[in-house]
Write a structure and sequence with these properties.
The chain has about 400 residues and is of the alpha+beta class. It has 2 domains: about 5-210 and about 325-405, Zn peptidases (Aminopeptidase, 3-Layer(aba) Sandwich); about 215-320, 2-Layer Sandwich (Alpha-Beta Plaits). It is about 30% helix and about 20% strand. The chain contains 10 helices and 18 strands. It has helices spanning about 5-15, 30-45, 140-160, 185-190, 235-245, 285-310, 325-330, 335-345, 360-365, 390-405, and strands at about 50-55, 60-65, 75-80, 95, 105, 110-115, 130, 170-175, 195-200, 205, 210-220, 265-270, 275-285, 315-320, 350, 370-375, 375-380, 385-390. Strands 1-2-8-3-9-16-10-15 form an 8-stranded mixed beta sheet, with helices on one face. Strands 4-7-18-17 form a 4-stranded antiparallel beta sheet. A hairpin with a 3-residue loop joins strand 12 and strand 13 (about 275-285). Helix 1 (about 5-15) runs antiparallel to helix 3, helix 3 packs across helix 10 and helix 8 packs across helix 10 (about 390-405). It is globular and about 85 Å long.
Length: about 400
């Protein structure tokens, strides 16, 4: 067991860095600086140079090359925030040594159970060390596992000066979970030839395709009058919202889709008779289908306004990020490098599309090709999140192999 890796991970997840989509500041929550300052101090102790923590909570640093041989400048990137879906306060990780393949009672209260019946991938980790939540919070392995793995790779390089490598750029970002992680990332100053986000899931995964993504916010203005005299007067915005949502195909929801299948995902529904707000995220790997999905939701709004004879419904539709494949295909040698690194770690390779997005998607469109590497984490954003320590160790080995095999 790599005790330093484990201890670093536990230390990081105990620092609350939950982001907030309702905030218009950057970072969206000031508490993200609490982790950034810890990492800044650790990077200084490790001897990195050009360490910069800016006012927007972007932390960057450089590990200079220790060889006169020619290497590309490679970036390693992870995000510090955790998802707004569940609290990141008072995280109390559980360590399950030599997992036996049975149910895991989260927190010992019998309230929540992590079970292979619901999460069959757990069976793949019999005999391994699992780190889970106590059922009351998320764990934060997304993406503090990635941070811990990057930091452990830097520790290894410091402890083994005989390991020759090129210049390595480190980037820790805020607000990835709310789609803003690349907003103020200075690609030019970062000055890497290419980078990898260490923000994936299952061991062995390499990802260079992701969803095209948009966010839709729909406001419905109703009319509230006393229900005793409501006939031909009341307009119940909740019922209109229900009707709107029912027009979208049921089979095109996240819980019914996989692989390259896109979806409409209703993420918020707040309503009264007078006013209702719905928010959707719209996802598809295929750009043409993505545009069709956006048109579909616009057409539904137009249709319902026509039905009611007035503009009761307004739509705000905003693109968030695009499929990075278009930007990675011209530089597929960086995928070949990652494949070689994973295989050399003795791990079975798994090339899959991301059913989501990462900072790397937007960074790729900003001029920094940036595919995604596994961390060993599962079930992010909720109380059933867990990470496998042995997978984390293999992620560290993969990072080191990327540096080893990148010599030109």
């Amino acid at each position: 067991m790599n005790k330093r890796l484990l201890q670093s991970f536990i230390r990081y997840v105990k620092i609350d860095t939950r982001s907030d989509s309702s905030s218009d500041t950057c970072p969206s929550t000031q508490k993200q600086f609490n982790l950034a300052k810890v990492l800044e101090a650790e990077l200084r102790e490790l001897g990195l140079t050009d360490i910069r923590l800016d006012e927007h909570c972007y932390l960057c640093a450089t590990l200079p090359a220790n060889s006169s041989d020619k290497y590309p400048v490679i970036g390693l990137i992870a995000h510090m925030d955790t998802a707004p879906d569940l609290t990141g306060e008072n995280v109390n990780p559980q360590l399950i040594d030599n997992y036996d393949g049975k149910d895991i009672n989260l927190g010992g209260k019998g309230k929540f159970t992590l079970t292979p019946k619901d999460f069959p991938e757990m069976k793949e980790y019999i005999g391994k060390t699992l780190i889970t939540t106590d059922g009351e919070t998320l764990l934060g392995a997304d993406d503090k596992a990635g941070i811990a793995e990057i930091m452990e790779a830097l520790h290894y390089l410091k402890d083994h000066p005989e390991f020759k490598h090129g210049t390595i750029k480190i980037g820790f970002t805020p607000d990835e979970e709310i789609g803003r992680g690349a907003d103020k990332f200075d690609v030019k100053t970062f000055a890497a030839d290419f980078a990898y986000t260490i923000d994936g899931g299952r061991i062995g995964e390499i990802e260079f395709e992701n969803f095209n993504a948009a966010h839709a916010k729909i406001r419905i203005q109703g009319r509230n009058v006393h229900p005793g005299s409501a006939k031909n007067k009341m307009i119940n915005s909740i019922h209109i919202a229900e009707r709107l949502n029912s027009i979208l195909p049921n089979e095109e929801r996240p819980e019914h889709t996989e692989n390259y299948e896109g979806f409409f995902h209703l993420i918020k529904f707040n309503g009264t008779v007078e006013e209702t707000t719905l928010e959707y995220i719209i996802r598809d790997h295929d750009k043409t289908k993505f545009e069709a999905r956006k048109k579909k939701i616009s057409d539904i709004v137009y249709f319902l306004n026509s039905q009611y004879g007035k503009e009761l419904i307004s739509l705000e539709l905003k693109d968030q990020y695009y499929n990075m494949r278009e930007k990675i295909e011209p530089v597929m040698h960086i995928i070949d490098l990652a494949k070689k690194a994973v295989s050399a770690a003795g791990v079975e390779l798994d090339i899959i599309p991301i059913r989501g997005g990462t900072d790397g998607a937007r960074l790729s469109y900003m001029g920094l090709p940036c595919p995604n590497i596994f961390t060993g984490a599962h079930n992010g954003h909720g109380r059933y999140e867990f990470v496998v320590l042995e997978s984390m160790e293999k992620a560290v080995e993969t990072i080191l192999n990327i540096m080893k095999f990148s010599k030109l």
